[in-house]
Each structure stands twice: as structure tokens, then as C-alpha cells.
Amino acid sequence: MKRPRITNDHGWTPRTLRKQERKIKNALLRQRVMAVRLVMEGYLGKEVASMVNVCRQTVSHYVSLFNEGGLELLLHRDFAPGREPFLTEEQQEKIKQLVLTTTPAELGWDVASAWNTKLLQSYVEQHFGVSISREALRKLLHRQGLSWTRPTYTLAKGNPDRQKQLEKQMDLIKKLDHQGDRRCRSSVHR
User: Which residue ranges does the record assign to the Winged helix-turn helix domain (predicted)?
Assistant: First the structure.
């Protein structure tokens, strides 16, 4: 078993690496720097592995990355590209604007006054030729900064003056009730 060695310190010392560790917010990247620093301080690979809770081969990998490209290569992480989105950016923006500015009834889709995932699913399939699940649509809208709300209804025959009067009465009742609570609390503490 070969002991991991720092062959090129790239100008870093254990002290400067410790300072760098403190600046790094990501715990996994901080762990990489800590592993290299501990090897630089003279610990064995298996000791470092147990201290930072990784396997010995991972410590060796971190050391080889550091030797090859310094701290920059050690902290560089490639991420998998991930799945291609179902809809293009333009299509996603079009759906967002559709939800914000129109109703299904205005477009002749339904008598509904608000969009739901079932209606959007049909719209996307007809206009973009893409079959997308309702959950994927919900997540797409969430990423676009939209959230589902229920429409509030107003009574068509309601008298607006009487409604305002009722709101004022409710506010007065709340204030009186709150003052009563305060009086009860003050009498209990005496």
C-alpha cells in the first residue's frame, strides 16, 4: 500500500489550506480540501479517510487531483448534463404568459375560469405536440415562479355597502376582543 504524497503543493501550505477550508460553504468541497491538508500534514491515507469519512481510494484521488491541478482542479466538479427538458425555453415562457394573462374560457378550451394541470396538459399536447405529465407541468410552473391558487368568488347579488359595513363591524369586534384579552391577562398577573 503506497502512502499518498503531495508532489506539487502549488504554493499552498497546511495553514493556508485550513484558511481556505473555512471559506468554503459546500461541505463536500470542504471535505476534499481537508483531506489534502491532512495528507500534507503527514497523516496516512487510511487515517485521513477515517477522519473525513471517505474511503482510502477517495483520499488518493483527491491528492492526485491536487497534485495535477492544485486547488482549482480539486474543487472543480463536473455534473452530468441531465435529461433534456420536454419543452424549450420559449415554450416554457409561452405557457407562463398563457397562465398569467388568459383563462381557458377566453381561448375556448373550457368554461373554467382558471388553468389546471389537466387543461394545460391538453394545451401542451395540442400546441407543442409534447406529452407531459401533470406533475412535470406542476414542477415546470413552480420553476417559473408560479403557484396554484384557488379563485375567490364574490356574490353577484351582494351589496358592496353592506359588505364594507360588515367588515368594519368585524374589525371592531376583533379590537374589542383583543382588548378584553389584554385586560384578562393584566388581572391574572396582579
Answer: 114-165
In order of 36, 63, 95, 108, 149, the CA distances from 58 in angstroms are 11, 9, 45, 60, 48
Q: What would the pLDDT profile of 45-101 be if each residue is shown by its tens digit?
A: 999 999 999 999 999 999 999 999 898 998 888 776 777 888 999 999 999 999 888
User: What is the distance between the alpha carbons of residues 43 and 5, in angstroms, rounded to a whole number?
Assistant: 10
- 120-135 pLDDT, tens digit each: 999 999 999 999 999 9
Alpha carbons 57 and 52: distance in angstroms, whole number: 13
Q: Which amino acid is at 37?
A: R
Give the DSSP letter string of 114-133: S--HHHHHHHHHHHH-----
The confidence score (pLDDT) of residue 176 equals 81
160 vs 162: CA distance, rounded Å: 6
Residue-by-residue DSSP string for 52-102:
HTS-HHHHHHHHHHHHHHHHHHHH-------PPPSS-HHHHHHHHHHHHH-
